[in-house]
Amino acid sequence: MTETNLLNLNNENYKIKNFISLFKLDFNLYGKQIFIAPLVVNLVFIFRTLISVFIKKFIVPYNIFNSNDINLGTYLFISLFIGVILISNSFKHLHQEEKAINFYMVPATIFEKFLSILIYYFFFYLIISILSTIIAFLINNIIVYLFFKIFYPLNLIKTLFYLKTISTYFFACSIFMLGSTYFKKNSFFLTILTLLAISMIYSMFSGILFLFIFKNTYFHSFMSLTELLSIIGLSIKSIFIIIEIVKFLLSIFFYFITYLRIVEYDVKGE
Amino acid sequence: MIECKNIHFGYSKDPLFNDLSANFENGHIYGLLGKNGAGKTTLLKCIAGLLHLKSGEIDVLGRKSIKKEPEILKDIFFFPENFFLPSLSGEKYYKLYCQFYPNFNEEYFLKTCVDFEIQLDKNLRTLSFGQKKKFYLAFGLSTFAKIMLLDEPTNGLDIPSKTAVRKKIAESLTENQTFIISTHQVRDLSQLFDYIIILHNGKIIFHNSIDYITDNYSIKIKTINQNNEKEEIESIYYEESTIGKIYLVKNKGNNSNIDLEFFFDAAISNPNSIF
Lengths: 270, 275
Fold this sequence. Notes:
The complex is a heterodimer.
Chain A: H1 3-59, H2 72-87, H3 97-105, H4 110-148, H5 163-182, H6 187-214, H7 225-232, H8 236-264
Helix pairs in contact in A: 1-2, 1-4, 2-4, 2-5, 5-6, 5-8, 7-8
Chain B: E1 2-9, E2 17-24, E3 28-34, H1 40-48, E4 55-60, E5 63-64, H2 70-73, E6 76-79, H3 90-97, H4 106-115, H5 129-142, E7 147-151, H6 159-172, E8 178-182, H7 186-189, E9 195-200, E10 203-209, H8 210-216, E11 217-223, E12 237-241, E13 244-250, H9 260-269, H10 271-274
Parallel strand pairs in B: 3-8, 3-9, 6-7, 7-8
Antiparallel strand pairs in B: 1-2, 1-4, 4-5, 9-10, 11-13, 12-13
C-alpha cells in the first residue's frame, strides 16, 4: 500500500472515529428523551389493556374483548406525534448563546452534527417507537391470552411498515426540524401556525387559479394536491405515488434548508 | 498564528469593526482590553468562526475558522464568559469531549482538577459557578489547543481561585500556543500578559508588548503635600486620587513597572497620545 493510500485510510479512520465520538456525545446530550418518550407511551398502552382486561373479565363480563382494545396503530401514532414535538426542539440550542457555542465548537463538521441529530431524532426514534410498540403489543396479547384465551395475530404489525406512515413522519420531521432553527420558543406551535398561514395562502392562490383559468366555481375553495391531480385525470395509485415523491423531495429540500441555516447561523449574544 | 485582515463586522447597520486588522503570534499571551461594548467578545467569536464577517478575513493557523472544519476546531478552545455544561459528571464529560482533542493530556487534567479542588464524580450542574468555571478551564487548558480564547476567565472567582487560575494559565503555555485573554479585571491577569491589545470604538488603539510599555512609559505620583510645588509634570494623562495626582509620563529609556489598569485608562481617554 502506498504512503498516500495509508494517509487517506488514516484520515478516513479519524473521521469515522470522530463521528462515533460525536454520536456518543449526542446520545448523552439528547439521547435519553428518545428512549423515554416511546417507553412512556407504550407503558400507557399496556396499562390501558390491563384496565380493559380487568373491566371485561370482572366488572362487565358480557362485554366481549376485541382487537380494537389492543390497537397498536393509535399508540404508534401518539409515539410519533411526540417524536415530532421533540424534533421541533432539535436545534433549539442554536438560540441559546452558550449552548450554541458548545455545539459549534465541538471539533466535527456541521454536516456530521446535523446528521447525528437527524439519525437520533428521525431514524432511532422511529425504530425505537416501532419496536417498543411491537413489544407492548405482544405483552398486551399475552395479558389478553391469559384471561380470555384469545391471541390476536401479529399481522396487525403490517400497518406499522406501511410506507405512508414512515414517509409522513420523515416529511413532518423535516418541517419541524426547520422550524426549530427559526423559532426560539414554542417552536412546535409556531411551526403549526406558519403551516396554517401557508395553507391559507395556498388555498387563496388555488381558488383564484381555478376561478380564472378553469372558470370552475366549484373548486375555488381550498384545493388539496390530491384534488388538483384528480382533475388532471390521474388514477388513485398514480396520485399516491406522485404525492409520495413530492413529499420525499420536499423533505430533502427542507432538510437541506435546515442544514444551510445551521451553516450560516451567527452566534450572537441574547 | 492568527491573522485578522481588514475585518468589517456589525450586529446592526452600525459597524462594530471597521477595517480592523491584527496579528497574533505563537508563544504569547495577549491581553485583550476594552470598555463594555468595545467588541472584545465579538472579536473572540469572530476568531473562533462563530460570526460571519461583512468583509475581511480571519486565518487561524492558515485556515479559515468560519468554515468550522474539525481540523481547525480541534486546535481552538473558546472559553466564553457564559458557557454550557450538560447534566453529566465531570468524569463523563471529559471522557466524552476529550476524544475530539488529539493533544488532550488526561494526566494534566486530573492534576489540574486536584489543584482546583474539583470533584469529578459530581454532576456538573450541581457545582457552584466558580467550580464550573474552574472545571471548564481545567478541561480547556488540558486540550493543549494551539489557540486559546479566554473571555473573562477570572470573573466570578474568589481570590485563591484567581491565583490558581493565573498560575495554571502561566504554566500551561507552550511555544506552539497563542492565548488571547479578554478581561475587565486587568489587575487579576496583568502579570500573565506579554502583549496588550486595547480595543476602543471598534478599533485597535494599542497593540504592543508589555516590554514596550515599560520601556516607554512610567508613572509619577505627586502627593497632596507636593501639590503646591511649582514643578510642572509633562504627562500624557493624569488621574486624581486620594493620595494626590498620578501621571503617566513618557519614559526616557529606563525600564519601569506600570499599572496596566492606569495605562488602559490613559489609552482610552486619549488614544492618540499613546503611540
